[in-house]
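Exercise 7. Given the encoded structure of a 504-residue chain, write a plausible sequence.
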């Protein structure tokens, strides 16, 4: 029995089939996008941890050398602690990369190539671990006294570090290569889905919309009857246009008011930055600072405060830009200044008080902002460093560079109410001619036309070759080199730089 379908019903069925197919393809496409994002997030974590393994192996070696060369018992105890922490993190990360770790969000699925690469560096890793554990055992057994037994173990660690670093470099490159291959495969599949979608749209136009055009002629009379309704609709549209004009006017007024508020915050930021005359009165030090916000209101913070012979320097970076970031920067400056004026010198109390103040204000603001913050105190040749931010670049007389990683010295401010367990302090001795450079990531992550970052290495090299100049001259050379490197590219982040030299 033949079933008769009216033209309208037949067109409806064809339309629904085509629409359903397109919808299915859209869902598949979204699932593919979600898979790409998930894979990229997972691969990013793997590459970050694998890259960190190189840093940790170097940190372990440097800590072992520093322990061997250190003569002060208290500092030797600190070096032992650094070795233990670096060894634990290095070993656990090495195992997680191979066998997975749910806490770190790592799966245990590695390619045969990566597995083979790990097998090649495993002997070097194992020897370095065993040598480090022997060194720790001897150190603890001898109550941290200097012992020539350390030297052979350190030499073994150094002998195998280079092979481990080269192997990890190859592993990182392999991870990156495999991640790119996954993305390209997904892109190819998405391309084929796009082609199928286009074909379906073309077929829909031929078999659905073309017959529909014929049917439209049958409804011309109905359209004529709808003219009155169209007239009424035109009146309604006219009224809607008038409402839109009024809304646009209100929006312009709101924009003007918001720009005025932003201008006020920007002026407040500029007013509370340390003035050159304040820095010039600090005896024995040559200090200069620079800040250039990417937007009208930036999120970078730096300050120099001098009281009772102690110079306190703060540098930080609020997440994002705009009004909230600017307000948070001003809050931080006020909190640091207050604690300085009441002569709070305990690093843990100093940073935890600032954190609690910022955290509670951020909660009241219903904001998700937080910031990195490092506090440095200098007095009579002794520099103490606390808090988490970018690296502190120590420069010795003659331009020798020492980079201090602050990742283990603190925790982001305003992210959690209690951070005292994360705060630590590092002490550095500065002699005449020595100094340090502080910066925010807007400098090191600035990109040129090829999307290559400026980088810490380039910054350190430029500082080293120009260290014989004054602080202001060094700052000028860095900023000029940075702007030349960026070229005509837009600056997307705030730029902050502080240079301090101990006068000879």
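Solution.
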């Amino acid at each position: 029995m033949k079933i008769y379908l009216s033209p309208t019903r037949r067109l409806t069925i064809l339309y629904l089939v085509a629409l359903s197919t397109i919808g299915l393809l859209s869902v598949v496409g979204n699932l593919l996008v979600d898979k790409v994002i998930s894979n990229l997030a997972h691969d990013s974590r793997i590459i970050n941890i694998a890259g960190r393994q190189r840093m940790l192996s170097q940190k372990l070696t440097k800590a072992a050398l520093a322990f061997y060369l250190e003569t002060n018992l208290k500092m030797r105890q600190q070096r032992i602690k650094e070795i233990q922490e670096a060894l634990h993190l290095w070993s656990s990360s090495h195992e997680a990369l191979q066998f997975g770790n749910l806490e770190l969000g790592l799966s245990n699925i590695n390619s045969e190539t990566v597995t083979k690469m790990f097998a090649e560096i495993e002997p070097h890793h194992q020897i370095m671990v065993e040598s480090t554990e022997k060194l720790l055992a001897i150190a603890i057994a001898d109550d941290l006294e200097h012992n020539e037994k350390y030297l052979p173990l350190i030499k073994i660690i150094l002998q195998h570090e280079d092979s481990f670093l080269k192997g990890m470099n190859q592993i990182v490159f392999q991870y990156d290569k495999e991640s790119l291959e996954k993305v390209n495969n997904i892109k190819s599949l998405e391309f084929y889905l796009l082609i199928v979608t286009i074909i379906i749209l073309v077929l829909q136009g031929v078999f659905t919309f073309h017959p529909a055009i014929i049917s439209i002629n049958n409804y011309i009379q109905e359209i004529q009857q709808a003219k009155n309704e169209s007239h009424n609709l035109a009146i309604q549209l006219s009224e809607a246009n008038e409402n839109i004009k009024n809304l646009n006017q209100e929006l312009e007024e709101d924009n003007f008011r918001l720009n005025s508020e932003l201008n006020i915050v920007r002026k407040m930021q500029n007013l509370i930055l340390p003035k050159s005359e304040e820095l010039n009165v600090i005896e024995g030090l040559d200090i200069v600072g620079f800040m250039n916000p990417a937007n009208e209101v930036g999120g970078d913070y730096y300050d120099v405060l001098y009281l009772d012979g102690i110079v306190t320097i703060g540098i930080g970076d609020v997440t994002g830009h705009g009004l909230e970031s600017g307000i948070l920067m001003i809050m931080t400056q006020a909190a640091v200044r207050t604690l300085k004026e009441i002569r709070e010198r305990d690093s843990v109390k100093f940073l935890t008080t600032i954190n609690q103040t910022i955290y509670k204000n951020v909660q009241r603001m219903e904001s998700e902002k937080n910031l990195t913050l490092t506090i440095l105190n200098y007095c009579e040749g002794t520099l103490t460093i606390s808090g988490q931010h970018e690296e502190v670049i120590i420069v010795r007389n003659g331009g020798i560079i020492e980079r201090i990683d602050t990742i283990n010295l603190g925790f982001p401010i305003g992210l959690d109410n209690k951070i005292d367990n994360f705060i630590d302090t590092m002490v550095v001795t500065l002699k005449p001619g020595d100094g340090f450079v502080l910066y925010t990531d807007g400098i090191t992550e600035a990109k040129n036309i090829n999307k290559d970052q400026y980088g810490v290495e380039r910054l350190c090299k430029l500082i080293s070759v120009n260290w014989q100049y004054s602080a202001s001259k060094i700052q000028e050379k860095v900023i000029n080199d940075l702007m030349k490197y960026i070229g005509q590219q837009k600056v997307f982040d705030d730029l902050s730089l502080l240079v301090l030299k101990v006068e000879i």
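Remark. The domain at 12-196 is CATH 1.20.120.1730 (Four Helix Bundle (Hemerythrin (Met), subunit A)). Students should compare their own answers with the one above.
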